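QUALITY CONTROL LOG
STEP: pairwise intake check
CHECKER ROLE: data steward
CRITERIA: each record must contain a sequence immediately followed by its structure tokens, with no blank fields

ENTRY 1 OF 2
RESULT FIELD BELOW
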Amino acid sequence: MTGGAPPAGYVSIEVGRCAIVTLASHAGDARALAEKGTLYAGAAASPDPRPLQGRGIAYAIALPVSGTRAVVRHNRHGGLLAGLTGDLFLRPTRAPYELRMSLRLRGEDVRTPFVAMIGVTPAPLGFARADVITHEIPDSADLGSYMMSSCSAALRAEAWQAARVLVMSLNAVGARHHDLNVKNVLLAREQGALVAYVLDVDRVVFEERGSPFVALGNARRLLRSARKWRDEHSALFDEGDVAALGIPVGELK
């Protein structure tokens, strides 16, 4: 089971051993993908899947019935225990939480990709595996790619301004992202301007609106990630880009 009644506009279906919560309009897509056993397996077997590197490989595909462009991700653990826990989660996994967080953030006007469906399949010893499918943000790239020397200073500054707008929108509604990093900020050009979307929202928790602790936590996570990207990838990064969120660098250390 994927936990609780589906949100408005979504339906629960089962295909083989895969329990799916999907937008009603994508039920045909869900059934077609899950015929391969899981949503992720269906994506990997689809015509011309485009691999995306991250924590494991995600696939950008055209959904098989509607043709909607989407990104299909198999959930995996990160951190020190990733080698032990891999893709195994306690039921109902974090996928239902990610769906709820996505809907709540979008309802608060925080940009994040739209979750089209989630799928959960049983695994040994009472564990489960999960897949999440989001609508693809076209012509997008993460903040880390804008920090490289191949990117102009003007474009890099525009990217950081879009990232700051995103972080301030999280802060305003009390949304603290416990893994806010340069790979989880996705940028795309819309109506001539760069805008930023937040990814991996299963790591978001809601606290008090406008809390200084939320703002400080988000800024610290982003600063830590940007420093690491600079140190490990020779990226270009001015710490004032994070201090411009209104938090002095001295408080971020």
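ENTRY 2 OF 2
RESULT FIELD BELOW
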Amino acid sequence: MKSVTAIVLVQILLMVAWMLRKNRNESKAPNQFVELDKDETKLGLLPKVSTDWIDEINKKYESKEYDKYDNRHFAFSDKLCNQIYSEYKYWEKGESHYEFLSKLHDSQKMYFAIINFEGQTNNGGVYQFLFNQPENAIIALEAMKKAKLNRLAEDYEKVLNEFFGKFKTIEELRSKFQNNSLNWDKRWNSFVEGYKEIPQTEIIEEYFYDETVRNFV
């Protein structure tokens, strides 16, 4: 009798595990990706800085030896990016990160994408960036190309081909989420559960800080 009860219990546990796994696999993948909209009226969240302040920052660091935590790049990003986050506080307004970024001017969107890519990648790798901020995944590539970070853009585009599936242009990539959403759902769930490896991320991480971040300065 005990053995029968044990068998039934195991069967129930296996069924629960299967149902949980099935529900995870059926969860919807994120499909809101920040886009450039060419709306020149979105100036409300642009930081106001004087040319004197810019000159002051440049002068402060022009002859200063590079420091990982105190450099021109971080001085600018703290004012132009971090301060906007801390003043606007989208999370207190009940907005998503995507909704907040969509309010920004196009040049801001690209700058924020680069800054977020840098912070996430330096902290936990490209995988962390894609996991935490999929909404920035596509615009980050556009920003890299605009900033002429050619090697990074080329390698990151390979990452996105592994992450999203093959594409030739950004326009083609964006259309995938309208026409092939089920495939993207499966890819995302596989990625989240750690089953989808993206080897190209390691190539970026080998050189990103020394060869890219320091060039921001």
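INTAKE CHECK: passed for both entries
DESCRIPTIVE NOTE, ENTRY 2: The longest helix spans residues 2-25.
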